[in-house]
Amino acid sequence: MRRTVASIAAEQGADGSLPWFRGGQLDPWDSVEAAMALDVGGEHERAVAAYRWLAGRQRPDGSWAAEYRGGAETSPAVESNHAGYLAVGVWHSWLTTRDEAVVSGLWPVVRRGLDLVVRMQLDSGAVGWAMRPDGTPDDTALLTGNASLFQALRCGIALAGLAGEPQPDWELAVTGLGTALRTDPAAFADRSRYSMDWYYPVLAGAVTGEAARARLAADWDRFVVPGLGTRCVADHPWVTGAETCELALALVVAGQPEAAREQVAAMQHLRHDDGSYWTGLVYADDARWPVERPTWTAAAVVLAVDALAGTGPASGLFADPAALPAPGTVDTPGSAAPLPGRGQP
């Protein structure tokens, strides 16, 4: 794991940017995931630098570009999952370091991002995947992105409690979103051929208990290739490391840690000598594809192992989403006072 974390750190830019690989594209969601892995590995200053890089590029409306290269926007689209995911990273940072200065500095950025997410919520309770040029949300909602936003809103509510700034609109939004994820499949575009739509509602904590186990069992044979890992897409002979480890996280949430360990073990054929991981394997051709080792694949491995080990201070965030505190119950250690500097723009 130390080598894997070092492989992520080696791709980070001097300005704190954390792309897929040095010189490659950067998107906010995957950058946050990689930063969380750095925190797991004790590289706290690097993780904070990645979050501050994102903070410096947030637009006034709370959004980020969907893609950056060399610090410049290369895909200016506004996507809801990118706007929300920093909340997960900052709550993970708090659990890991208890650094009040970092959280108070990033809280306004998280708040703007989640306020945008709430503005993009549709009547169904689902959140539109993108913002149209006229400032209205697209009426297409993606299940995986919405599950991620369910987790992000819950982390944001926890941060709001820490900051002493309750956000009732977020609480209403996450309630409606959770109901849609559990009961209204028609609210989301049909992308059921993708494994992420299968397991992500479990990973994010929207579907739990026996319902979670039943959901994972229902499509197990459709997506899992014994001894190799998890298909990204049901109808392609392609297993991918990130999806396999995310499935492992979902299995931990569902109370099936042994099955999770089997999945993490199965994907180790993607490990490179330096601790990084190839994206995937087209097993029908015994060929790695694409031929790249992105930081987010390595990060998914680190987060899965941390959740399984249960030793990291933030491991419970992915191992037990139900452990997120109820709104209004979070205090700084030894004090009921809100974080210093809260609410600064």
TrEMBL record:
<feature type="region of interest" description="Disordered">
    <location>
        <begin position="325"/>
        <end position="345"/>
    </location>
</feature>
<dbReference type="InterPro" id="IPR008928">
    <property type="entry name" value="6-hairpin_glycosidase_sf"/>
</dbReference>
<protein>
    <recommendedName>
        <fullName>Prenyltransferase and squalene oxidase repeat-containing protein</fullName>
    </recommendedName>
</protein>
<dbReference type="InterPro" id="IPR012341">
    <property type="entry name" value="6hp_glycosidase-like_sf"/>
</dbReference>
<dbReference type="GO" id="GO:0005975">
    <property type="term" value="P:carbohydrate metabolic process"/>
</dbReference>
